[in-house]
Amino acid sequence: MMLWVPVVCALLVDAIPQAGAAVYRHLDAQGNVVWSDRPGGIRAEVRPPRVLSSGRVPVMNQGAAAAPAPFTPYQSVRLRPRSAPVTLEQARRGVSLRVETAPQLRNGDRVQLSVDGKRHQSPLSSRVLMAIGLDAGAHALVAEVLDASGTVRQRSPVMTLEVVSSPESGPVLAAQP
Predict the structure, then answer these.
(1) Cα dihedral 146/149/153/159 (nearest 10)
(2) pLDDT band for position 54 (cuts 50, 70, 90)
(3) Do 124 and 133 form a contact (C-beta atoms < 8 A)?
(4) Which residue ranges does the record assign to the DUF4124 domain (predicted)?
(5) Which of 43, 76, 120, 131 has the smallest set of CB atoms within 10 Å of its CB?
(6) Surface-to-core class of residue 99, CB atoms within 10 Å of its CB (0-12 exposed, 13-18 middle, 19+ buried)
């Protein structure tokens, strides 16, 4: 098990001299520029990339870790019901769902979509979520609000989305409390 430590050390020691190795620029027979570590072309100077920075480095308190701000619940979180029928083809391509929060979604908070009790979309700082690849039938949709640490803090009421195989199949969507 400890055999990998000497192997890694040997590889690192072997790589250190190559970190400052020369790089040469050549032209091949077709006139293409070729970079190589073999002499024969023009030696090129390789500089480390420039990193853009504001020049300010945040100072962290080395004492006790700062406690996260307490989560303040939203007055309301809900998915806006759709008025148009959702066909199987539309559901497979993606159905956009508008999330309404009062007040507006705060900095650091994100929303994600849960379909039939399973996370369907990664958390986003957005007011529109997408339900993609749904099969025919009824699906329970819930918008979940996550705080900055990724903890689900609040959920919308369940909205039932009925995906029909054709637009003539009848009622499509009902919001349930």
Answers:
(1) 20
(2) low
(3) no
(4) 15-70
(5) 43
(6) buried
3-state secondary structure of 169: helix
H-helix or E-strand containing 52? Answer: none
More confident residue, 63 or 92: 92
pLDDT attached to residue 91 = 87
pTM of the model: 0.57
Q: How many CB atoms lie within 10 A of CB 174?
A: 11
Cis peptide before 103 (omega within 30 of 0): yes
Contact indicator for 147, 71 with CB cutoff of 8 Å: yes
Evaluate if residue 42 carries a pLDDT over 90.
no
pLDDT classification of 59: cutoffs 50, 70, 90: low
Average pLDDT of every residue of the chain: 78
DSSP reduced 3-state for 141: strand
User: Between β-strands 76-79 and 173-175, what pairing exists: parallel, antiparallel or unpaired?
Assistant: unpaired
| Whether CATH 3.40.430.10 fits 76-175 | no
The token pair at 147 is 């705080």
State the sign of the Cα–Cα–Cα–Cα dihedral 82, 87, 92, 93: negative
Q: Which alpha helices (DSSP H) does the chain contain, by range?
A: 4-19, 88-93
How far is the C-alpha of 77 from the C-alpha of 18, rounded, in Å? 57
Alpha-carbon distance 119 to 152, whole Å? 11
